[in-house]
Automatic annotation (TrEMBL):
Alphabetical list of PANTHER family matching this protein: RIBULOSE-5-PHOSPHATE-3-EPIMERASE
Gene this protein is translated from: rpe
Chain's role: Catalyzes the reversible epimerization of D-ribulose 5-phosphate to D-xylulose 5-phosphate.
CDD domains: RPE
Cofactor (UniProt): Fe(2+); Mn(2+); a divalent metal cation; Co(2+)
Protein name stated in the entry: Ribulose-phosphate 3-epimerase
Entries under PROSITE patterns matching the protein: RIBUL_P_3_EPIMER_1 (PS01085), RIBUL_P_3_EPIMER_2 (PS01086)
Chain sites annotated for binding substrate: S8, H66, G142, F143, G144, G145, D175, G176, G177, G197, S198
Amino acid sequence: MKPLIAPSVLASDFANLQSEVEMLNKSQADWLHIDIMDGRFVPNISFGFPVMEAIRRYAQKPLDVHLMIVEPAQYIEQFRAAGADTITVHYEACTHLHRTLQQIKATGAKAGIALNPHTSVQLLEDVIADADMVLLMSVNPGFGGQKFIENTYRKIEILKNLIISRNSKAIIEIDGGVNQHNAPLLLEKGADVLVAGSFVFSSADPLQTIADLKSSAN
């Protein structure tokens, strides 16, 4: 099975957002990854509902929304209304994670859990069966263009075993420092979805770069 590729719109040219989204529509990308940052959970601010709604107007592919914000439960319905197909919240930001996952599912969106690099996969043992996806951060969240953290390979293996042991249907997404060099091993270890930002949008030919990532499992 070919991996799902989710280019991170945060790395696109915001002055030409419509054309960037239309380029992704023509590409082999499966999802558009949307990073929402509030300047509190992470030391950066990205964009909110108006920009996301603008992306939704032009996007022909599902929106994979990653909430790097505190108190995400307050905004779940708004993000769904703005066009989110998958909503991922951070384990570290949710006091009542199970409740938040149920809240996401009640809107009709898929529910994901994100883990920072320092957070143990084992902490998901009691909620993994309720998640549609687990996003492993392979860099520290908040800024693009960071160096890939090698321990991610080990975390994927542990997570895959946990998913199997708990009969969960969750898929595994990797976000941060993904490129043509580490993509094959990430997929070999058990990743299903690869998020790529700077690697795609800074390349000379983003369409070909996405196609190359798509064929990484071959």
